[in-house]
Amino acid sequence: MSRRTTRPGRPATAGARTPAVTAESPCPCGLPATYAQCCGRLHAGTAAAPTCESLMRSRYAAFVVRDEAYLLRSWHPDTRPPAVDFDPAMRWLRLEVLETTDGSPFHTAGTVTFRAHYTDSGRPGSLHEKSRFVRHEGAWVYSAAVFVD
Question: What's the rounded Cα separation, in Å, for the pair 34 and 131?
Answer without folding.
Answer: 25
